[in-house]
Design goal:
Number of strands: 7
Helix content: 40-55%
Structural class: alpha/beta
Order of helices and strands: HHHHEEHEHEHHHEEE
Number of helices: 9
Number of domains: 2
Strand content: 15-25%
């Protein structure tokens, strides 16, 4: 009698485990589809041309992955019971919390999207939407609000008075839109700071990354490589079509 009761409980436990696992997998696959779309949006729209690496966004993405791909489905596994009262409400709340976390993370990252890639003295620097807004205390100008970051030349201080003004202010010169000029008029100055293949081979530690850089530069004489400093201080290499004013590729050191 006791053995039969134990067998019955084991069968019930096995059935419940299968049901919970199915609910867990459905939730996991649904979350995975949403996260995949979110990552594609980040890479193609918010941080195009490989700028996601220069802006070091992946730590924040990892946190979202933990919330949406681990905690959400795991909570579903724990609470899921067929015919449970208010089960739909519980699942809806979990999904809404996941969605809110994703939307908040997306909003924060969108504020950190690169609007400007500015040539400043000897290298290009990423200027984010938040930095530009904080520098001007105004809405972002329409000519800087396109989905693709705008390449500009930062006019250096022309005299000691300008140098002192920027030194004493809280606004770095590269964050001041008044110093932005089209790169067309400063092409020769910019190209002088481009990196040779020998320098790239020395700076890029990965052989595959260097090979990609070399193949890309060989495609077009207007492609030039430069140092790129992200808003978080990360250093990388950017390849630019100087004639078309396009970012071709961003490579980590």
């Amino acid at each position: 009698m006791l053995l039969k009761l134990l067998e019955t409980k084991l069968v019930l436990f096995d059935n419940m485990l299968k049901i919970k696992t199915k609910a867990f997998l459905i939730h996991l696959l649904s979350s995975l589809a949403v996260i995949t779309g979110f990552v594609f949006w980040l890479n193609l729209v918010v941080f195009p041309s490989g700028l996601a690496d220069s802006e070091n966004i992946w730590e924040a993405v990892k946190i979202l992955l933990i919330v949406d791909l681990v905690l959400g489905p795991l909570i579903t596994f724990v609470i899921y019971k067929p015919n449970k009262k208010n089960l739909k409400v519980d699942i809806t709340i979990i999904a809404l919390l996941q969605l809110l976390a994703l939307l908040y993370g997306g909003y924060v990252m969108y504020q950190q999207r690169p609007l400007i890639v500015a040539f400043n003295v000897k290298e290009f620097e990423v200027i984010t939407a938040a930095e530009l807004h904080n520098a001007t205390n105004e809405d972002i100008p329409s000519n800087f609000s396109s989905s693709s970051p705008k390449l500009v030349y930062v006019l250096p201080p022309q005299n000691e008075e300008e140098l002192a003004r920027y030194f004493m202010s809280n606004t770095p010169i590269q964050n001041d839109p008044a110093r932005y000029y089209e790169i067309d008029d400063h092409t020769s100055t910019i190209i002088k700071k481009s990196l040779s293949l020998a320098t790239l081979k020395e700076k890029i530690k990965s052989e595959s990354a260097f090979s990609k850089a070399q193949k890309t530069l060989d495609k077009n004489n207007n492609y030039h490589a430069f140092y790129l400093r992200g808003s978080s201080g990360n250093r990388s290499v950017i390849i630019i079509d100087i004639e078309q004013k396009d970012i071709i590729k961003v490579l980590s050191h």
